[in-house]
Write a structure and sequence with these properties.
The chain has about 230 residues and is an alpha/beta fold. The chain folds into two domains: about 110 residues, Cobalt-precorrin-4 Transmethylase, domain 1; about 110 residues, Tetrapyrrole methylase, C-terminal domain (Methyltransferase, Cobalt-precorrin-4 Transmethylase, Domain 2, 2-Layer Sandwich), CATH 3.30.950. Helix content is about 35%, strand content about 20%. A five-stranded parallel beta sheet has the order 3-2-4-1-5, sandwiched between helices. The termini are far apart.
Length: about 230
Amino acid sequence: MSNLYLVATPIGNLADITLRAKNILAEVDFILAEDTRVTKKLLDHYEIKTKTLTWHQHSSDHDWQKIKSLLESGSSIALVTDAGTPGVSDPGGQLVAKVAQELAEVKIIPIPGASSLTAIMSVAGIALDDFLFLGFLPHKKGRQTLITEIKESKRPVIFFESVHRILKALESLADCEKKLIVGRELTKNFETIYRGQAKDILAILQKDKSQLKGEFVIIVDNYVRKK
């Protein structure tokens, strides 16, 4: 019986990989990657020679049929994202859904590890037993609706934002007095955690454009505390 492994990979620091993840990546027949060039850096670092194939948001039905054929023939496959845990704001979930629906005999196995979501939560210092996760905000359609939802939510809200839209996101929240915890370049050399209102963090990033690098993870602390 073939297996599909969902393997978490480092979000920046290459040392943040589990022993189990390394073993699985070396043992499977194929590795599915969002961008094989990105994954190759990790594999080369650990001298893993497993052949890579592509699976990303633009993958076609032809791509799926090829993967399906490999699994039906008994091959074991590991799915990785460019960074972090597959299936969290990436096309991994689509593949899992297809396998679960069309290949019931294939075992789907999570190999947990690094995640920017849990990384920022661990250093937030606020109550996060109940929160809303939005992934990446849409570029245009529906974006303002989600911004309004973030402001009005009674629970902490966590979302991802790219370097190209972080200023826009903070500008949209600048009239909100709630506390934010923003992580930049988590686990990397220039890792930074910002704390304060959106307008304060916005001013820091506008003043020093050198800090506009990498991806950002934002927590809006909407938790209503009892007096």
